[in-house]
Structure prediction request, 1028 residues.
Amino acid sequence: MSLPKLEELSQSVWQGPSLSTGAIPTKEWMDTPVTFKPGGYAYPAKKEKLEYLDSQPGLNFPFARIWSPEEDDWLLPDNWKDIILKGLAERLDKFRSLKIFMDCCVRCGACADKCHFFLGTGDPRNMPVMRAELLRSVYRGEFTLAGKILGRLAGGRKMTVGVLKEWFMYAYQCTECRRCSIFCPYGIDTAEITIILRELLYSVGIGINWVIEPVSNSTKTGNHMGLQPLPFRDNIAFLAEDVENLTGVKLDVSFNRKGAEILFVTPSADAFAEPGIYTCMGYLLLFNALGLDYTWSTYASEGGNFGLFTNNEAMKALNGKMYAEAERLGVKYILGGECGHMWRVVHQYMDTMNGKTPANMEVPVSPITGTVFNNAASTKVVHITEFTADLIKHNKLNFDTSRNSHVRATWHDSCNPARAMGIIEEPRYVLDHVVDKWWEMPENTIREQTFCCGSGTGLNTDEIMELRMRSGLPRANAVKHVVDQHAVNTLACICAIDRATLTSLVDYWTPGVTVCGLTELVANALVQKGENRVDMPEGLRTMV
Amino acid sequence: MKYSFSFLVVIALALIAGVGSQIPGMGYFFGVVIPYLAFAIFLGGIIWRIVYWAKSPVPFSIQTTRGQMKSLDFIKHSRTGAPDTNAEVVGRMALEVLTFRPLFYNTKSELREGPKITYESSKWLWLFAIVFHYSFLVILLRHLRLFLDPVPVWIGWIEFWDGLLQIGAPTWYITDVTLLLAVVLLFSRRLVNRHVRYLSLMNDYFPLVLLFSIALSGILMRYMLRSDIVNIKELLVGLVTLHPVINGHIGAIFYIHLTFISALLVCFPFSKLMHAGGVFLSPTLNMRNNTRAVRHINPWNDPNIKPHSYADYEDDFRESMIDNGIPVEKGLPPKDEPAEAGAEKKAEE
Amino acid sequence: MYNKGLIVPGLIITVLLVTFPFWFDVFSSAESTDPTVELPPGGEQNCIYPADEMRAEHMVILNEWRDDVLRNGNRGTVTVDGKVYGKGLQLACMKCHTNKEEFCDRCHTYASVVPYCWDCHLTPTQQKAGLKEAN
Prediction:
């Protein structure tokens, strides 16, 4: 869809009538049906992708069909309501979090203006509490005594097609970034609500293709883009060649190699798309300089896991590849690249879903410094930034920060690493060592209060570009602040989705800012033996 | 409608209790039957609700981290932001539950020209909430003097400090004023703050109106429409020792106060008021952030969900992998060449 | 994970807290107090108001008297049924209710009321003891 001009959208955001700008809708939300217009929704999941996934053992993606959100009739199965209500009952039994979050909200409104979707769209149903009320009202109306008796008076309503459409709209205007959860006195996490809503929607065949196609591809080929073994390897080999041309150092890269000490897994976006490829070049250069005994896998070639954005069964199936491959190759542990939601899955779900780890895996030890990563003793997956910070602490890396003199950086904390893991200081520690100086964005937009890029959880699709620019506004605004104040020109982060989406975001709101991964900066500043660097005014991005 | 209904209910309750209790013989109904019933529903209700919650497992470790995780030795760990041990979880929960930490860090964002979004600290909700909850706690404890005989000395201390200002007789309690004020402010906030106004339900107004009425009727009883406290205490002690008696005359205001409280007790387990218990069970708050170090168990983890296997993967792409020197597990299946060659030979023959 | 080991004790603690008054009185070893007051030894039958009203309102009357006498300097008297009462705890009340311990304290202790009358006033018993010492 065509994206409005900057001036138009700017005007609309801060002057258009919305709850953000002070206009209170006169109609109650329950009386306001949702309408789908082009640009307002991501395209539905393709029939054949759902069918393929449904055929996989243990996965359930029923009612694959061709349908359009714009049509009145969504071609739902006859017993759709039954399926939804049974599904909700089942999930109440499976997730204590759901029960607690349904029962405990006092609607204090602390979360209301914490959501980037709300700030950018001013749509009342994008206040996190309201997003939860979309589900909570049905929970009350269909599952609680008070709601059954008092109905709407007690905030309850029955499940209808209109409600389902509302769910579809707002479950896909949430990036599960958890910022609201930090401000909630009960820790109510809208990500959990959105996860449940999406699971329920998939149970009646409703989903978006930007999520389902990567899940399907990842299942079959191992990565989101559906790169088969050869192109995957070749892409990385090309990047290795680029590094060789830039630095004059011969790289040793292996794939599916048995007996390697470490299996390296990173989001596949790093292997084929700008600007992730520069981060990937960084990994290659860094590991080579260290003489790390590691291998890539073409089978477990995806760090990201869009299963998290569909249902927990798909998440488990996709994630299982990492341990399966670690076992097959006989590695001691896994080193994970820079990725946001990958790390939510690794840190909070992986061991639970697919542990215990294969017998050949060991508590991770840095082969360079001897540091034992006890914090990863059970999953045996180490974050690249922990790994690098430890190297720096032990003086194992020799940096020439002047090589990054073209960089005036600020740091973007990605949602999942910040709020579902707590990796906040390591990247700052690393950044301190690889650039001369860098600048923090305003304090309410960083660390655990960081703002999402606005396009996570599979919303990084072009048909909803205006929505993405709106939801990314709080982040872009904070970037603009440091651009204006300190002439910052680089936004560094440790998330592959961020690298892709923030690029479009800052290009729109504050052009002239480059988005890069942390390892790109690390590798560019790294002084290594036997190197013969060409002049690299743009670091690893220099064209030879 | 949302809040007018709440007022109507409260007025109706007051009329029923105020008039009803003064009908001879009905004192027992309003002073004994209703409170017992309400308390039974309250107690049964909260047990039922907690058991209902507890019956569902916490399948995944979904703590939200509000600070640095425990990782390398030289990285400063935020012990109450991303707790790693049980003791640290207790510390985090203490901050969340006792100090309302998330509300303390609340911000108000504003869209300005540009657009530019600004964030400023906004502690009003925190202030109103903390004043309300602690006033309520003190009042609750103070009321124990009417249930316990003899009265433990520490209740006297609470009363002493709460009545420190020594204004009037009987002495005005500080918490009576602060509770009433906090409830009024919390209610006004629901009307004034545009976000909260739009999302508030009757379920949000009613408890506030009820609490306001409880406080007001209590204050009226203590300072204006006084009733003999000894008769009241004899009834209340009777209630908790299961020998309820009503000696002498007790004013209607007492029955109104008691009926309001009974209404609150009945609502409690079935409403958002259960946040008092729920906050302790919230998985985002009460879990350790050590999931990579210690495995969390999901009781319904399905062992039948397996990844698309490597063997299947290799079957799909074996030929290309072998041709391009990517290591494989199995070689290509033997081709039918010998048979074909034999056939050719035969043909030649 | 169900956290049974924490929820069950938590539930028990919750129930114990909520039912605190029910079991406290049962387990309390201290003697319960008796709010029965000693009627005036002199056999007086009437006070300035009926008994019910006095029970509920005496603190207000005393407070008003104190303000009248000490702050406004108005040492007038109160006449009820031809009987004249001086405005004051010792001038009026304690004339008939001579025994603070058996009259005032009975209810005050029962209801945990600690009036600050006695910060300034002496009880009749204290007065007697004081007189003896002075002699």
Q: What stands out?
A: The radius of gyration of chain C is 23 Å. The longest helix of chain C spans residues 51-71.
